Design the sequence.
């Protein structure tokens, strides 16, 4: 199946990006280091949040998986911006954290820098790949709250990797589906258990919503 839509419609608005970057900066003052808490991200409405269990080790498990998935599409960005190492550095930083490192300023700055690279590259597939890397680095700061948009922060690196694949071949959804299947097959039982702490996702109508739904459903099977 081929879908066609303006590629920029799959990315946050400038205001949403500014909100996300502001949240990252604010996290420097929070010893828990949590970012991306704005309910406005991707247009979701504010809803009641219940705390969930989400330890540093849980975030490391998600971060390691996210890095593996983001790295698979990194070449799509580097082909367009071969001298720009920001997404690669974001992946390296989340791997350091996943290996037992601390949530440092380097990690936080790497997430911000990779998201900036996504905005600047000017290529839809490359932008999605850089965003996957930036969101992978940001998984270290996922909030321990039950609203679905917090689950997006854990699933986002994989979804944008799948989207990058699709955008690279003129919107062929089967290619994105293959990328999701790889991610699902390579998610450990512990990663699946962490994802299942969030509520089941609705399918939604947009391509991104469908990708989030398919990934979430696949991890619960």
Sequence:
């Amino acid at each position: 199946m081929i879908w066609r839509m303006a590629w920029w419609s799959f990315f946050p608005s400038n205001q949403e990006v500014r909100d996300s970057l502001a949240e990252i900066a604010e996290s420097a003052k929070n010893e828990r280091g949590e970012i991306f808490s704005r309910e406005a991200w991707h247009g979701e409405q504010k809803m009641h949040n219940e705390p969930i269990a989400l330890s540093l080790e849980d975030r490391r498990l998600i971060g390691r998986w996210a890095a593996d998935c983001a790295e698979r599409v990194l070449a799509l960005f580097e082909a367009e911006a071969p001298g720009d190492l920001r997404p690669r550095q974001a992946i390296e930083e989340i791997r350091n954290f996943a290996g037992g490192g601390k949530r440092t300023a380097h990690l936080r700055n790497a997430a911000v820098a990779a998201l900036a690279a996504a905005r600047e590259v000017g290529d839809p597939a490359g932008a999605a790949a850089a965003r996957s890397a930036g969101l992978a680095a940001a998984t270290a700061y996922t909030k321990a709250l039950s609203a679905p948009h917090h689950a997006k922060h854990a699933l986002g690196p994989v979804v944008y990797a799948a989207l990058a694949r699709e955008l690279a071949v003129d919107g062929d959804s089967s290619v994105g589906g293959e990328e999701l299947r790889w991610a699902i097959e390579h998610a450990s039982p512990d990663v699946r258990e962490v994802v299942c702490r969030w509520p089941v996702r609705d399918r939604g109508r947009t391509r991104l919503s469908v990708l989030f739904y398919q990934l979430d459903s696949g991890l619960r099977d």
Residues 2-10, 12-47 have pLDDT under 50 and may be disordered. The radius of gyration is 16 Å.
